[in-house]
Amino acid sequence: MDRRPVKLAPMTRSVASTGVRAPGGRLPRTLLTALAPMAWGTTYAVTTELLPPGHPLFAALLRALPGGLIALAVTRTLPRGVWWGRAAVLGVLNMGLLFPLLFVAAERLPGGVAGTVAAAQPLVVALLAVPLLREGLSGRRLGWGLAGVAGVGLVVLGPGAAFDLAGFLAALGGASAMALGVTLTKRWGRPAGVGPTAFAGWQLTAGGLFLLPVTALAEGAPPAIGPGAAAGYLWLGTAGGLISYILWFRGIGTLPVGSVAVLVLLTPLVAAGLGAALLDETFGPVQLAGFALALAAIVAGQLPATGARRRA
Predict the structure, then answer these.
(1) Which whole-number Å values give the CA distances from 179 to 123, 154, 156, in the listed order?
(2) According to DSSP H, which parts of the chain are helical?
(3) pLDDT (tens digit per residue) in 273-284
(4) Relative to the CA of 125, which of 89, 137, 142, 274 has its CA 20 to 30 Å away?
């Protein structure tokens, strides 16, 4: 009998070695992963209603670094070997670059324009998956990605939408940074014995350490923090930071990368829904049609390709 050890894929090794199992069935895993972009959709409302203005980098720093340090203290797990560099790269892409670029886009563009550009992330993931994951360029994935962008645009773009080149490039850069981070996370997997909490902690800490000197140089002293701001920062650092990224990285490890990427469309949809609720606005037929189109793209993104269904 062949006694050679069986080599498992990186994601399989991590689940087997940690004893942490994702919920059975694809639907529960997808719904848990979807909670992450839904939590990120609250960022705009929390920022505008609770946080002091003029300190977006400080908000990004508190969203990343405290949660990362808490995760490291709880798990007591540090990277080893090549994972020091990989964790730093992923942390800078997924948090260190993404957070400030999104804030720049939000300041220079109307929220609808920034949200529509950010919704292009599934398209970027589909393109990056060709060289990095050796996946074929799927016309179906590109088509539903375009439909998702169109749906989000119908929901959030208003008649006063204006174009600013710097803001557009910042929004596109943020979407591209996160798309590359998602694709590399799928390519590299997680090292053996490391669960999603430690994995999220590595990246949040790396992103926070990257943001620390940038924030100090760009914004100087932190603002005065009242009770409302404290609650806002706490929400961003927990639900919008550590908890959501634990769910997000668990989902990347157990679901196809294209299925995870398209869930990001939920972020601008939740942001638009909260904006309407807080401002007592109503959606017209165009916005409702956009919601339906974006949700259809999200659902279609969870379905396996025809060839995969046949193999199954």
Answers:
(1) 9, 23, 21
(2) 10-18, 26-40, 43-50, 56-75, 83-91, 98-108, 111-118, 121-133, 139-156, 165-188, 196-219, 227-237, 244-254, 257-262, 266-278, 285-302, 306-311
(3) 887 777 666 678
(4) 274
